[in-house]
Amino acid sequence: MSSNILVVAEHVNGTIDDITFELLGKGRELADDGGLAVALLGGGSDLAGQLGKADRVLHVDHPALADFNPQTCAAALGAVIEQARPTLVLVGNTSVGMDLAVAAAVQNKLPLVAYATDIVIENGKTVATSQLYGGKVYAESVIDKDAGIVSVLAGSFPTDAGRSDGTPEVVAVTAPDGLDGGTVTFKGLIKPEGGDVDITQHEVLVAVGRGIQNKDNIPLTEELATALGGVVCSSRPIVDNKWLPKTRQVGKSGLKVKPKIYVMLGISGAPEHMEGMKDAELIIAVNTDETAPIFEHAHYGTTEDIFDLVPALTERLQ
Amino acid sequence: MNIVVPIKLVPDLTEELEINDDGTDLERDFLSYRINEFCDHAIEEALQLKEAHGGTVTVLALERDETDKALYTALAKGADRAIKITGVDEAAPTQAAAKVFCQALDGIDYDLVLTGVQAADDRDGQLGAWMSSMLDIPHISVVSSIEATSGGGSDKLLVRKEYAGGVMASFEVSGKGVLGVQAARQMPRYAPVSRVRQIMKEAELEEIEADDVDVSTGTTVRRMFTPEKGEGAEMLDGSAEEIADRIVAIIKEKKG
Fold first, then answer.
1. What domains are defined for chain B?
2. Looking at this predicted complex, what is its ipTM?
């Protein structure tokens, strides 16, 4: 049977997000000739023009879609799926995608597999591999029906394969009724304030996670970072605890970094963090949990105690 | 504002997870569960909203081995009601849990549902999203700030949702909604063990038997597996000093 694939484009603040290009690249690989479409909810022709890897852009234009709105965009996506009838819908397992995937599954009566890191089509059936339990377990799910939705973790596929200079055909899809009468109203975007340090510009980062135990231990890691000629960054819990500012956060809702050297202290390597740093050139992980998923991804690892190892490292580097 | 917080208990990720003989699910005998950390944030945010604006907080959970502890802890922290729902299989998908929670909501007067933004076992999508679709009310995920505002005689919420790169969007929500909480405004409060023990003596958990839940995800797990050991990192052994020597050498080589 044929593979008609619909990728859901994401755009915030007038920019197409990388996840869209990841999904377009994978979609191109899986789709039949002429069978790759992309749903563009809101946005204009400038955004449509960047989606040339697809054969068609199915564009829903309406003032209530100008900025991402979970309520109106879910309704609009439902209308696109209804019209396109794809065999597979690819959406990001992202902040935007998490508001759309289940809504589409319910509205369009399609099965959903979330947290996917890979997708293959075997004998006409979609098989998606999900990363579960904080990256400790993988599950291969077969979509039983002829059509379904897969939400994909950002960073699973290269973005280059999804970019193209080509000009796709743009097909207008009529906005569903009721977009104006919603109970959720977009009020504005809030951009991050500039911090003392731009962690994306440093070649050496010392990343601190939950294993650091308390705020008083942060200076220990800063000394190591200084000795290495770098700065300290962190996983989410450290920022939630307000031990470091938000500008130091690496990962899904933080920043993406690509340093030469990334030393990880007490970070388990959950997918949300990996998304922000997996392209680091050299990853050295220190974590007392020998089953921590980070040891799958790091180049070097040790289960040595942070509080014994870090002072020894700093001393040698000073 | 009356807030309901359906929580998920998930396998303790600090323990080793094993796959069952079929290779299609976790080996669930002797599996220990704990509250999903994002659900802990959802409870905290609910309590903060209640303390600022009044109303009630009701916490719901499916019966697992640590459910009583999680619910008594929620009561000790300040929740008004704690309801345990029995009769749902441990391996049930997220949408089955959502359906059961929605059934329980039938008898509860609520304005807002707060869930954890996600859980480690959401193979079929997130709880809050499923509940919102079943209840036909809007859903916003990855929420890290909720403010109640009143204007024009009705209560509204101002909600901040996080995107990548530290960018956030703010939304106004009028009427009921489900919000997937990424982080509460402060770290979840701690309930002293003595206080939890006292609550266990004074209070009783409410209990609801789930209706028959017949939910098919439309997908089949054909294989579940743990990543093979030996792939990935080269592990460095020895004393702290020996390991430090190795790491310094590795870094120096990389720096050139």
1. 2-209 (3.40.50.620)
2. 0.93
